[in-house]
Amino acid sequence: MATVTAIQGVDDTLKKLATDAVASLTPKPTITVGPLDRDDDELRLNWFLYRIGPNAAYRNMEPPQTGWRSSRGRPPLALELSYLLTAFPASAQNSTGDQEQFAHAGLAAAMRALHANAIVGEADPALSPLAKPLVEPLRITLESLDLEAITKLWTAATRPIRLSVGYEVSLVVVDSPETFAPGPPVQTRRVAVAPSMGPRLVSVDPARITHGVDATVSATGLTAGVSFFLAREAGDPAGPPEWWAMTVVPNPPPRTIVLQLPRDDLAPGARRLDAVAIVEGLPAGRDSIGVTVVPVVTGPPGPIAKNAPVMLATAHAASDVEMFVGGVPLAASAVGFVSATQVQVTIPSATPSGPTQVGLRANKVAGPLVEVTVA
């Protein structure tokens, strides 16, 4: 596979094919590689590379000749190149005014040569050394560009449109500079046999959980080696990078497991609950089910005064927290987020005294209603 010179090598190869094709013409066009708006008055054919894209078939394949050569097993950079071949007539008109026809003749000669040499192999004399070695032969394909696509290219170049044809060249591979770094050999072989197909989670009740509330998970295939984890989400406090270990409540009912959230400051929202079977230190099975962590008011234990800031104990609050008292939302200015476990509120004087229900909503997730007393 070629290095960073691969694209330059394709440029030189196309230029060589076109140069050989027009060698017998009179007048003979010059072959150039460059932008569309280049200032030049001579008769010429110009190759313009206007797009580079990934090769979909090869981008994830193992290199067929050498195998993986990078420490992470990443495939090389596999590309497809899109060119525009344009015929430019000479500026000076002869007595018959045939400069445009000379350009057309040169374009036709180049297209005929590219059609006859649509596959350029390693031994082809037209192949530039900068493009070697090849993973597979270069394939030069005439593209069907409509007038709109060509017009957009010329509009960007701010030049009058000229007769142009499109070609696609593949496969162009740019090799990685990383050297192969094999991993250490296997020191000890371990084979774990589990008498189960792994855990299968059937349901969780309730599916909307908060800190301090039991969640009963119905499941099959539970063994002593099954652990339960809650996926980590944005907004969680510092901790494990991938998941949180759930707290297991002892003595659950048959064919169930009772779990509790490990912390009261986890961010609210939908999450994935995983059951992972571990046998002799190796994962032997996994299943997942969805749960939703919801915000809730956990205090104060006594009456709440009106018209005065009161600090409420909460679980799973977020910066966009809202509070509802008796089904009525408090004004945004009356609710202040302090932390996931503390929210400061001011109860309006119009709120009826006595027992009432309050609830929180955070991250667009509403929590359960809790009864408090308004003084």
Record field, number of beta strands:
24
Low-pLDDT windows of residues? none
Number of helices: 3
| Integer count of domains | 3
CA-based shape: elongated
Radius of gyration: 35 Å
Strand order of the largest sheet: 1-2-3-6-5-4
How far apart, in Å, are the first and last alpha carbons?
A: 79 Å
Hey, roughly how much beta strand do the residues contain? 35-45%
Structural class: mainly beta
Q: What average pLDDT do the residues reach? A: 89
What share of the residues lie within helices? 10-25%
- Oligomeric state, counting identical vs distinct chains: single chain
Elements, N to C (H/E): HEEEHEEHEEEEEEEEEEEEEEEEEEE
Largest sheet: 6 strands, mixed
Structure characteristics:
Immunoglobulin-like, 6-stranded mixed sheet, 375 residues
SSE blueprint and pairings:
Layout: H1 6-21, E1 30-33, E2 44-54, E3 77-88, H2 99-116, E4 119-120, E5 138-143, H3 147-157, E6 164-174, E7 200-205, E8 208-209, E9 215-220, E10 226-231, E11 243-245, E12 247-249, E13 256-260, E14 269-279, E15 282-293, E16 296-297, E17 309-315, E18 322-325, E19 328-329, E20 335-339, E21 342-346, E22 354-362, E23 365-366, E24 370-374
Parallel strand pairs: 1-2, 8-15
Antiparallel strand pairs: 2-3, 3-6, 4-5, 5-6, 7-9, 9-13, 10-11, 10-14, 12-13, 14-15, 16-17, 17-21, 18-19, 18-22, 20-21, 22-23, 22-24
Helix pairs in contact: 1-2
Give a written overview of the molecule.
With 375 residues, this protein is mainly beta. It has three domains: 6-174; 200-293, Immunoglobulin-like (Sandwich); 296-374, Immunoglobulin-like (Sandwich). The protein is built from three helices and 24 strands. The strands form five sheets. Strands 1-2-3-6-5-4 form a six-stranded mixed beta sheet. A hairpin with a 6-residue loop joins strand 12 and strand 13 (256-260). Helix 1 packs across helix 2. The longest helix has 18 residues, at 99-116. It is elongated.
